[in-house]
Design a protein that fits this description.
Jelly Rolls, five-stranded antiparallel β-sheet
């Protein structure tokens, strides 16, 4: 049986169900690992464009009840980010009118996993059965590692995930489904949604035009449906071009063909170094697919649905690569990490073609083909392994800078001193720190700041024997408010013990949060919340040690805090409570208690299903 004769389900009666299970567990593992990156490296403060696009132009008008729905379609630089704005509004409302970039990162991750689920089902469904366990492992490696770290730890990046989801789903339908007028209408809406996700969404109707022509030529769709699909998508291309905003990044565009080709070489070589040889090696399966498809078309044979799917996805990625090369081609020295989620789709599709072609062969050549495909796949594994330390370092640098920004903003909100925003770490370049100060001076903006930045609830510190203000390890960062108590006393160190209580307090939000530090060992070392519901320990699943860890709990009328330290060999500390939105509290709970369990569960179930799939799949 040749590769051309393989049709989805021909060898596997329960084909689709197994693919869905495998894809779902793959997504669970990717979600758990990426959630760790978000919890470890994301910060809550607005970053760069968020001050302008989200705070000034979206959330402030909403808080002042002067925002109009037509503003959702306005340009942001060269993009129209309708869905990103819509999601920001929804999260802001669900979080009780409190902004939190980490909450945005969490829901961006859910969007990404939905797009990955669609992509994985599509690619695995149209791959050779015996290759699926290996492909699933490879997909997990590519999709879980933090190469696209800007999208992982940046709240204002959901447009990439909306684009990815709409694009892959539309290409899957256009290439494999039986074309009826209802599906043509669905594809029109999906392409339109992609165009209002970000500027390069315009490339989706272009790709669908090519698929319409392909299905017309190979006779796999009724001529009338193919023509209607072609005309409707062509009209979208014209419409999208006419509404493209004037680019504010023209200075980054490639200036001449030499710059464009140099940038294209770099983009198409990823994750390897930029050479034309590496371009050929990375995209070799695409050339193979193109040759086989051309031969079938010349022989007047209809292409298989899987062939059209792979061709459509790879054509879309190549168009995206060309757009990246042009838009950022002037003096391009590296590929911005935010584009790598799209390029990763191309890698996954190319490897799927290589393994499907190899496993689909029969006879003596099969072993050699499988070996060659394994070598082809290993080049990506090696390149990604070599690139991982750099991605981790970049993500760590972003986290350090974001943490400094949080401290600076918190200090300004506490004191109103403009000097708090000076000497910035480069995170206020857009807009400048003086504009940020003017923005924070607005009461509606101060009220929407996340728990990391806003003023704490005014409380009364009652009897605090053995606990003193800022009683923490000397090298820990100081809070800008006089709001912490701890049992670490210099020069005595851990030797102090005692008890500390606050007076009753209330909150206007459904949750409140405190920061804790030190080494907990209930009941001898613990911080508890007391209310009408009883008394509850506020420690995390692991000791925070010499760092501040955020803990959230439900707000109750007349609640109070109590800390106890009866261990002379350890210390604990806690801060005054701060009002917290429900989604921010959810993030804090997941980050402090559930990530390890999710990673373990996802890895175990995924590995088990991969092994089971490998044993059940005929070779």
């Amino acid at each position: 049986m040749s590769w051309r004769d393989l049709r989805p389900g021909a060898r596997d009666p329960g084909d689709l169900r197994g693919v869905v299970y495998l894809s779902a567990l793959l997504v669970l593992l990717v979600f758990a690992v990426r959630l760790y990156w978000v919890a470890r490296y994301a910060t809550s403060a607005p970053f760069w464009d968020q001050w302008d696009a989200e705070i000034d132009r979206l959330l402030v008008p909403i808080a002042q009840e002067r925002y109009t729905w037509t503003s959702l379609f306005e340009a942001h630089n060269e993009h129209r980010i309708f869905f990103t704005r819509l999601m920001t509004m929804a999260l802001f409302g669900l979080n009780g009118g409190q902004f939190d970039a980490r909450v945005e990162c969490l829901f961006n991750l859910l969007l990404y996993c939905l797009a990955v689920l669609v992509m994985s089902i599509a690619l695995l469904r149209h791959s050779y059965g015996a290759a699926r366990p290996v492909l699933a492992l490879f997909f997990a490696l590519v999709l879980a590692l933090p190469f696209s770290w800007e999208n992982i730890v940046g709240g204002f990046q959901s447009q990439f995930y909306f684009l990815l989801g709409f694009s892959v789903a539309a290409i899957w339908i256009a290439s494999t489904a039986e074309l009826r007028l209802a599906k043509v209408g669905t594809l029109f809406l999906m392409a339109l949604c992609a165009m209002f996700s970000m500027a390069s969404g315009l490339l989706v109707p272009m790709t669908l035009c090519a698929l319409a022509v392909l299905r017309w030529i190979d006779g796999s769709a009724p001529r009338r449906a193919a023509i209607i699909l072609l005309i409707s998508q062509a009209l979208l291309v014209v419409f999208g071009y006419l509404i493209l905003p004037e680019s504010m990044g023209a200075s980054f565009h490639a200036r001449d063909p030499r710059e464009l080709l140099s940038a294209l070489k770099m983009v198409l070589s990823w994750p390897k170094s930029a050479t034309w040889l590496h371009v050929a090696l990375v995209w070799l399966p695409t050339f193979f697919l193109g040759f086989r498809a051309a031969r079938d078309l010349i022989a007047r044979r209809a292409l298989l649905p899987g062939h059209r799917l792979f061709a459509g996805i790879l054509a879309w990625v190549l168009l995206q690569a060309a757009a990246m090369a042009y838009s950022r081609g002037h003096d391009m020295v590296d590929i911005a990490s935010r584009y790598l989620d799209i390029l990763s789709v191309g890698i996954c599709a190319n490897v799927a073609i290589a393994l499907t072609a190899a496993f689909g062969l029969q006879g003596r050549g099969r072993v050699a083909a499988v070996l060659l495909s394994a070598i082809y796949m290993s080049q990506f594994v090696i390149a990604l392994a070599l690139a991982t330390p750099g991605a981790m370092a970049s993500m760590g640098g972003r986290q350090d800078g974001g943490a400094r920004v949080v401290r600076m903003l918190r200090a300004y909100v506490a004191t109103g001193n403009p000097a708090s925003l000076e000497g910035n770490p480069g995170m206020f370049a857009y807009p400048d720190s003086r504009r940020i100060a003017r923005t924070l001076d607005m009461p509606v903006v101060a009220a929407m700041m996340p728990a990391d930045i806003r003023r704490p609830i005014g409380i009364e510190w009652l009897r605090c024997d053995g606990f003193k203000p800022d009683g923490t390890y000397p090298r820990m960062p100081r809070m800008p408010y006089p709001d912490s108590r701890g049992s670490y006393h210099a020069p005595g160190g851990d030797s102090e013990s005692g008890q500390c209580k606050t007076g009753p307090f209330s909150a206007s939000t459904p949750y409140v949060s405190i920061r804790i530090a030190g080494y907990f060992d209930p009941p001898r070392l613990d911080v508890r919340e007391t209310s009408g519901r009883g008394q509850h320990s506020l420690r995390t699943s692991s000791n925070p040690g010499e760092t501040w860890s955020m803990v959230s709990f439900r707000a109750e009328p007349g609640m109070a805090l109590e800390a106890v330290d009866t261990n002379p060999d350890a210390w604990i500390a806690f801060t005054a409570p701060v009002e917290t939105g429900r989604l921010s509290a959810l993030f804090n709970m997941i980050a402090s208690k559930l990530i390890g369990a999710l990673i373990f569960l996802g890895a175990t179930l995924f590995a088990g299903l991969v092994v089971l799939s490998a044993r059940k799949t005929p070779t």
